[in-house]
Amino acid sequence: MPPLWAIIWLVLGGLYFLVPLYATAQFSFETGSHGLGTSSYLSVLQSQDFIHDFVFSLELAVGTVLLSSALMVPTVYWINLHIPQVRRVVEFISILPLVVPPVALAVGVAHFFSFVPTLLTNPIILVLAYVIITLPFSYRSLDAGMRAINFKVLTEAAQSLGASWWRIMLFVILPNIAASVLASSFLIVTIVMGEYTFASLLLFNTFPVYIEYVGQTSAHGAATLALISFALTWLAILGIAWIGSRIGIKQPSTTIGAR
Amino acid sequence: MASVELVRISKTFGNQIALEDVSLKVNSGELLTLLGPSGGGKTTALRIIAGFEKPDSGSVLLDGTDITYVPPNRRDMAMVFQSYNLFPNMTAFENVEFGLKIRHISKSVREKKVLELLELVGIKDKKDSYPHQLSGGQQQRVALARALAVEPKVLLLDEPLSALDAKVRLQLREEIRKIQQNLGITTIYVTHDQEEALSISDKIAVMSTGKIEQVGTPSEIYTSPKSVFVADFVGEMNWIKGRVVDDVAGGIECNGITFVVPSASGKKIGSEVFLLVRPESVLINEINTNGLCAFDGKVESRTFLGPVTRLRLKTPIGGLLADVTGLKAYSLNIGQVVSVTFDAANALVIEVDKKETND
Amino acid sequence: MSVVTEQKAVSVKPRGQEKIRFRLPSAAILGVLPFFAYVAILLVVPTLYLVVGAFQSQSGGFTIQNVTELLQSQYLNAYLTSVEVSGITAVVGALFGLFVAAAAISEGIPRWIRQLLSTFSGVAANFAGIPLAFAFIATLGLNGVATILLKDMGLDIYKMGFTLFSLAGLSITYIYFQLPLMILVILPTLDGLRKEWHEAAANLGASRLQFWLHIGLPILMPSFLASLVLLFGNAFSAYATPYALTSGYLNIVTVLIGSVLNGNVTASPQLGDALAFGMIVIVAATMFVYGILQRRAERWLRR
Fold it and tell me: Residue B77: its chain C contacts at CB < 8 A?
């Protein structure tokens, strides 16, 4: 029989978590004349601006995933394989983005790259920045995955069986890393799809920026979009959890977003 | 000190039967070991005695009093855990002191007792060290002192040495036994290491799949195993398959050779049995073979084990293991033919169809 | 003519006294060069630029005037408000999270609740930002679902002076991502605490209270404090949520910096740099303290 205090706290926690979601859902289904319907959803999903901005965010997310993977996977592999002495330095670097909040980073980037105005108006700057913002999570995820597969031991075992470097990379390391890369990618997508600070300060129209814009005039529309955003995050997290359960490697928890 | 009794204890976890109708008595001042393979139920039994699990049915008695539903912190027992479970935020001294502190023993009395115990377990010089600064063996000593500090009626040890190096294990088990005997404290010890069990126990209860196979002194368990499981689990054993041919004098025939085995008398003629002989009872090139049945065997392999050399012999009655010591071992080579005997009169007999059952 | 044979001074190091050099295979370093270069260009240099800018005057010379200007009431106010919100939500979030997490793993609670809580916390921690702000507007806004519900029950919170667009409102909203963050961070710690020491203590005769007093809380404290600090840093860095919820009503450092950057507030870019610099200093200090506490916590919970 569970103790009373435990039940009380779980109920309180549950209420606190669920009431805003319920309220958002209710708002999203309210039509203007106190009825309930999906008109808000329909109008939102058909809006050109929504589609454009949502797709834009998706593109940024994919771009970030690609660039981040291209940068981080070889780096993590290299460090683990050849120069583990550098690990502490790299670990420290990987948490630097947490010390420089997105707002501050936006200021720094805006001023530094003001010499190259065309760069600042090109979406590529967002991708470049997002790789930095997601760095703590992509590094930890990939590194954890690499070390969890007992990298060194597997490599040595494969070597003692006569496998060449390429074989090891392709058939031993990469398959195991693939799952970590996938999990890390989901994480990146979640973060990018929710990132507001950088995008708005550099005057880009991403999905979160769009939500804010809609919210200025329609609380119901914003509620609809918020719920959609929430559903997407759920899917991503479930995806990560599913991957984690499939391969048995614990993925580091996600604790950042556009706050 | 106190006696502990388990009366018809049964426990199931989900659909796994951990203990099935287990009854056991530990006398005051005795060290009883629960011996068996992993999953055999011994740790469950210990935890039920300690109060960390409640049995589905049956009762636990302490000095005759039913304590089945008494919470663990009021049973007046102390446990030494496999993973030491020392409190990481306290030094060795503070860990040992803890039990006394919460019993509101005065500071000066506490201090004296703690230092005494730390000295007893041989770790006085480390009294101000934290657990993470101590080795496994040192931590276990602290754990032992901590358990003894509260002067429990019963001392429980759950595979306390399995996480330690071989040498430390040997040393510590002797010390534990010595301390236990000096204090005369009723102790229940759980292990899967039969050598450990044989060396320190007053009594051993061999357990397998939730049931007690046999209870007896170490020598009883070793020389007179009552079931196939016990015979197989404890020590090495030669299994010679044969048929009863004489139910009066106890004759067993195997591949043309007949052994006179008194313990086989009364068994049905024609029934298939196993003749059980310990490797150290198999004698090689023995000069004095009066009354012993001798036959030839060929040395197939030699394994040097340190104190003994184990030979695998090919004989007319099957493959046999023989443990030979010292000088004799050096003179035997692979392929050599030797004369093999054993004292069949003291061998054990177990019926073949009893293989899956117990007692 | 004498042939002078050059005598090369050969210094032979006696055996065994050769210094062990830390060999960094120079070729291997090339492998991580792209990473270092990337971080340098997109993080380190912009940050340094910002730091330098904080100490630059309009004309380009060195000055600390920007920084001292931060102590002026409107800017100082922003810092204080940010610290206040971050502090409150850190403490509330930490305690709330601790109790909920502990509840989820206590005896008698089915295992799936813990899993559900963990997964949901992962989602909720990411729900922060714009969507969260609007979710709370839908809940506690003037026409929010909860507001109306309370009104129907006789409790008109807006009449009583409450508004979502205030420090209190912002704090309540912040908790939505502080709470799950705490849960995620403290669950593994509580796990490490659960059975072993509890059993050992009970075995030695300790009651529940005695366990918590002597063992549970002392062991938990470093982790708890570390999480508290983490929550503080987390809230302090928030931009999107306060922006959507308060833009203009409340003076928060992050929103202020954004306003300076966008030219919505008349202030020199150098001042913006200074504001950002001040922020970085605070967050860096937070992370530093967190690191120390975390290492302390790990030491005890490591086997």
Answer: 203
**Per-residue model confidence (pLDDT) at position A216:** 87
Cα B203 to Cα A15, B160, B206, B309, distances in angstroms: 58, 18, 10, 29
SS3 at position C259: helix
Residues spanned by the domain of A204:
44-247
In a domain? residue C265? yes
Q: What's the number of domains chain A is made of?
A: 1
As to burial, measured by CB atoms within 10 angstroms (0-12 exposed, 13-18 middle, 19+ buried), residue A161 is exposed
Position B110 scores a pLDDT of 92
- pLDDT single digits (tens) A92-143: 888 888 888 899 999 899 888 888 888 888 899 999 999 999 998 899 888 8
- Domain-embedded: residue C17: no
For residue A34, is it within any domain?
A: no
Q: Provide CB contacts within 8 A for A166, sequence distance 6+.
A: none
Nearest neighbour of C239 by CB, restricted to A16, A230, A259 = A259
Amino acid at B145: A
Number of separate domains in chain C = 1
Question: Is C1 within a domain?
Answer: no
Q: Which candidate from C196, C205, C301 shows the least CB-CB separation from B73? A: C205
Q: Any residues with CB less than 8 A from the CB of C153 and at least 6 apart, and which?
A: none
What would the two tokens of residue A253 be? 């928890």
CB contact (8 A) between residue B150 and residue C204: yes
Between helices A4-29 and A39-46, what is the axis angle to 10°?
70
Q: Does C206 touch chain B (CB under 8 A)?
A: yes
Residue A25: inside a domain, yes or no?
no
Q: Contacts of residue C45 in chain A, CB cutoff 8 Å?
A: 112
CB spacing of C206 vs B83 below 8 angstroms = no
Identity of the residue in A19, A82, A223 whose CB atom sits nearest the CB atom of C28: A82
Shortest Cα distance from A64 to chain C (angstroms)?
14
Q: Could you identify the residue written with the tokens 């507007």?
A: C137
C-beta atoms of A10 and C104 within 8 A: yes
Instruction: Tell whether A15 is covered by a domain.
Output: no
DSSP string, A120-172: HTSTHHHHHHHHHHTHHHHHHHHHHHHHHTTHHHHHHHHHHTT--HHHIIIII
Residue C214 sits at the chain B interface (C-beta within 8 Å): yes
Whether the per-residue pLDDT at A173 is higher than 60: the answer is yes
Q: C140 is in which domain, residue-wise?
A: 72-298
Q: Which of C242, C234, C280 is nearest to C258 (CA)?
A: C242
What one-letter code names the amino acid at B216?
G
Phi and psi of B189, rounded to 5°?
Answer: -120, 130
Beta strand B31-35 with B186-191 is parallel
- Give the residue from B47, B89, B105, B134 with the most C CB atoms within 10 Å of its CB, the best one to mutate: B89
CATH number reported for the structural domain that contains residue A242 in this entry: 1.10.3720.10
Q: Is C218 on the interface with B (CB under 8 A)?
A: yes
Output the domain CATH number for residue C205. 1.10.3720.10
Q: Is residue C4 part of a domain?
A: no
The encoded tokens of residue B155 equal 């001392």
pLDDT > 90: percent of chain B: 40
Instruction: Judge: C196–B85 Cβ closer than 8 Å, yes or no.
Output: yes
CB contact at 8 A, B22 and B45: yes
Report, as an integer, the average pLDDT of C196-208. Answer: 88
Q: Nearest by CB to C199, which of B85, B90, B150?
A: B85
Touch between chain A and chain B (3+ CB pairs, < 8 Å)?
no
Residue A257 lies in a domain: no
Contact C280 A99 (CB under 8 A): yes
The chains in contact with chain A, meaning 3 or more Cβ pairs closer than 8 Å, are C
Comparing CB atoms, the residue among C45, C50, C100 nearest residue A10 is C100
* Confidence (pLDDT) at B185: 93
Angle between helices C111-126 and C73-104 (to 10 degrees): 160
